[in-house]
Design a protein that fits this description.
By secondary structure, the chain is mainly α. It has ten helices and two strands, in the order H-H-H-H-H-H-H-E-E-H-H-H. A two-stranded antiparallel sheet has the order 1-2. It starts with a helix and ends with a helix.
Length: about 220
């Protein structure tokens, strides 16, 4: 697979949010403001990148039977680093992201990329995969947050917008607004892709439940 295809796949063809439908909990929770969306996206990208690098380097060393606990330790370690850095240098963002910052350690996007890609590919490709998936997640978050902040708060990146600041639609700032915006953007993506995103059948290689799948275990064991 070409480097360009690996990098762009997570942004378009396998976008974590709009195609794979993964990581929706933080997407809906922190997408009320664009600044929060950027912060969560960059933090998740950092964890993705760090875990993909280490797992790719150690993929021939980590015993197959304990690979999942190793993934958990590595991902949790990078999540802790991201949490401490944001708390130290961007405390308002740390407060805004709240519990969803440490919960990056449980994000199924990161586990899926670790098991499906980093565990089977070289360092260069694993880095590109992490950057692509992280960028796709960040852009999806930003798209949702932009709509919600503009119409729900009448601002963009905290800057008040004329007329809109006095004519906000509060539902966009609430949980139902997150579902509405996500549903509308999913409909747009499926319309543009002519339904290919909705009908996508990734199989074992792209299944987000691959970690616990017995059939994938047979593939990994060479059966």
């Amino acid at each position: 697979m070409k480097s360009r295809e690996i990098l762009t796949r997570g942004i378009v063809k396998e976008n974590p949010v709009f195609v794979m439908i993964l990581g929706l909990c933080p997407v809906l929770a922190v997408s009320t403001y664009a600044e929060n969306a950027i912060g969560m996206g960059l933090a998740t990208t950092f964890v993705l990148l760090g875990s993909n690098i280490v797992i790719s380097l150690l993929r021939n060393i980590i015993p197959n039977k304990v690979r999942i606990p190793c993934y958990i330790i590595l991902i949790a370690s990078f999540t802790a680093l991201a949490k401490m850095a944001i708390e130290a240098y961007a405390y308002p963002l740390y407060q805004a992201l709240g519990i969803f910052l440490p919960l990056i350690a449980t994000n199924c996007i990161i586990f899926a990329r670790a098991e499906i890609f980093a565990n089977r590919n070289n360092l260069k490709d694993s880095i590109l995969d992490a950057l692509g998936s992280g960028a796709g997640f960040t852009l999806a978050l930003l798209a949702i947050a932009t709509i919600r902040e503009i119409f729900g708060s009448g601002s963009f990146f905290g800057i008040a917008l004329p007329w809109l600041k006095d004519n906000t639609t509060m539902i966009f700032a609430l949980a139902p607004g997150g579902f509405i915006v996500l549903a509308c953007l999913l409909a747009v993506v499926n319309h543009v892709s002519r339904g290919q995103a909705a009908r996508r059948e990734p199989g074992c290689e792209g299944c987000p439940s691959a970690v616990s799948c017995g059939k994938l275990k047979e593939i990994n064991d060479g059966v």
